[in-house]
Amino acid sequence: MNVRTQSRVRSRVIVVGNGMVGSRFVDDLLQRDGDSFEITVLGAEEYEPYNRVLLSDVVAGRADVATITLPSQQAAHTAVRRGAAVVGIDRDARCVMTDDGSLHPYDALVLATGSAARVPDVPGLAPLPGGVHALRTLDDAREIVAASMNARSAVVVGGGVLGVEAALGLARRGVPVTLVHGADALMERQLDDGAGGVLAGELAGLGVTCRTGARPSQVLVGDEDGRVSGVRLDGRTNAPGEIVDADLVVLACGTVPETQIAAQAGLAVERGVVVGHDLSTDDPQIFAIGDCAQPPEGSQGLVAEGWDQSRRLAQHLVSLVVRQEPTEAPEARTRSTTGPPRTRPPPRRRGSTCASRAPRAGRAWRRASVRRWSRAPPVTRASPPAERTSSRSRARSRW
Ligand SMILES: Cc1cc2nc3c(=O)[nH]c(=O)nc-3n(C[C@H](O)[C@H](O)[C@H](O)COP(=O)(O)OP(=O)(O)OC[C@H]3O[C@@H](n4cnc5c(N)ncnc54)[C@H](O)[C@@H]3O)c2cc1C
After folding, report:
1. In this structure, are 164 and 86 located in the same domain?
2. Of 217, 232, 253, which marks where a domain is finished?
3. Which pLDDT score is estimated for 3?
4. How far apart are the CA of 85 and the centre of ligand 1, in A?
5. What does pTM read for this prediction?
6. Residue owning the nearest CA to atom 4 of ligand 1
7. Which position has the higher pLDDT, 389 or 253?
8. Do 266 and 324 reside in the same domain of the chain?
9. Torsion, CA 360, CA 361, CA 364, CA 368, rounded to 10
10. Collapsing DSSP states into helix, strand and coil, what is residue 63?
11. Average pLDDT score, the chain
């Protein structure tokens, strides 16, 4: 180990979310500069990162958990904590808190919290009764598979790509499925009416009954067991009050970006966490990528977009690294007038979480943060806030 490495002060990067984009971001950063960062990944799920796109194959029995697991990061200065949900961000102290109460200071915070399944506002769905599932996580897929073992019949709500895949997966397991879709044709974003009709015909041959032009008006729950027993339909194509029996219901009604911790921290949030072209939020120390982000160009909720953001952000953070000489005194660096203006931490707010729980450490982190980013140019935005807002209508998810 050389002297420079021993004395290097690494910038602390916290990544919140160990999903398809968060895990890719760590790879991207390590590939570009494995030595300048101390990376901590905090992921709410208990699992290694996995290919979420293949969850419908798990439901269909075409893939198992082992085959969808993504390579995990094992590198020096990189720690991955699974089953660690971030519950708060203290922007003044620059640290996050996880659900076990532990605190994690950062110089740069990357939010990659993804999105959650949208639960439609239908009577009977709050709280979700037994037998009703979304398909977003590996746990969801496992529960659907387990429920399909004893299910007599299933309803899938939502006839987009994910709904069609889920319906096919259940039919493949021998469960009779009714696919309920509000529009006149399946997958109307991808197919015209004629093609949607052909698809419905093909699905019928595989054990999926399609009910287009119909929406669920109520989810019926058994009095004794609290489990779903059927779905009442409302629409042009069904008899008034018609009920489709089901002891398994899968919701495939789109997604909602996971923005809770960002909103609680006072960051700008619209549909997603608002970011500029450089993927920074309105706090220059905090970035957002993947499904949770709302970039100026809008978002389709596709993984390729998140991977592109991951690559760009890794490049950006590497470009901000402070190249410190080991012999240089901190005072000399911070007094320098030749470099670009250094970033200053915002004034501490009263009652900041990390400060109140660990005041001494909090002060140390703030001093360290000033040192580490002291020569980094301030993060600039390529677009004014007004331009970001105008992208809102395009920021719809396909899933
Ligand atoms: C069944 C299915 C099929 C799909 N098919 C396609 C497809 O064919 N093509 C395509 O492009 N896309 C598809 N998608 C969408 C694709 O999976 C997403 O675009 C992609 O997973 C986004 O990656 P992400 O890392 O932003 O979010 P995610 O992969 O959702 O990861 C986010 C992670 O953050 C964690 N997290 C959230 N909040 C916190 C917190 N507070 N603290 C710690 N961790 C937190 C979550 O637990 C999760 O592990 C599909 C999605 C599903 C569910």
Report:
1. no
2. 253
3. 33
4. 15
5. 0.82
6. 53
7. 253
8. yes
9. -170
10. coil
11. 82
Number of domains observed in the structure of the chain: 2
Spatial distance between the Cα atoms of 167 and 229, rounded to a whole number of angstroms: 18
| Whether residue 172 sits in one domain with residue 87 | no
The enclosing domain of 21 has a CATH number of 3.50.50.60
Q: Are residues 268 and 195 in the same domain?
A: no
- Of the residues 231, 253, 275, which one is the last residue of a structural domain? 253
Domain range for 213: 132-253
Work out the widest C-alpha separation in the chain, in whole angstroms: 81
In a domain, 378, yes or no: yes
For 226-258, the three-class secondary structure string (H helix, E strand, C coil) is: CEEEEEEEEECCCCCCCEEECCEEEECCCEEEC
Residues 240 and 263 in one domain: no
- What DSSP string describes 281-309? -SSTTEEE-GGGEE-TT-----HHHHHHH
Ligand 1 centre distance from Cα of residue 291 (Å): 7
Give yes or no for residue 272 CB within 6 A of ligand 1.
no
In the reported structure, the alpha carbon of residue 386 is separated from the centroid of ligand 1 by a whole-number distance in angstroms of: 28
Instruction: Answer yes or no: is 13 within a domain.
Output: yes
17 lines ligand 1 (CB under 6 A): yes
- The verdict on 186 and 94 lying in the same domain is no
Give, in order, the Cα–Cα distances in Å from 138 to each of 26, 46, 51, 148, 230.
21, 10, 9, 15, 25
Q: Which residue has the higher pLDDT, 36 or 363?
A: 36
The finding on whether 111 has its CB within 6 A of some atom of ligand 1 is no
263 plus 387 within the same structural domain: yes
Q: Is 56 in the pocket of ligand 1 (CB under 6 A)?
A: yes
Residue 125, domain member (yes or no): no
Is the pLDDT at 136 greater than 90? The verdict is: yes
User: How remote is the CA of residue 79 from the centroid of ligand 1, in Å?
Assistant: 21
- Ligand 1 atom with least separation from CA of 292: 26
Tell whether ligand 1 has an atom less than 6 A from the beta carbon of residue 302.
yes
- Give 115 Cα–ligand 1 centroid separation in angstroms: 6
Ligand 1 centre distance from Cα of residue 244 (Å): 31
Closest Cα to atom 24 of ligand 1: 114
Chain center to CA of 378: 27
Q: Are residues 231 and 262 in the same domain?
A: no
- Cα separation, 377 vs 208, whole angstroms: 57
Q: Name the region of 101 (left: φ>0; alpha: ψ -120 to 50; beta: rest).
A: left
State CA 372 to chain mean position distance. 28
In a domain, 123, yes or no: no
pLDDT value for 65:
85
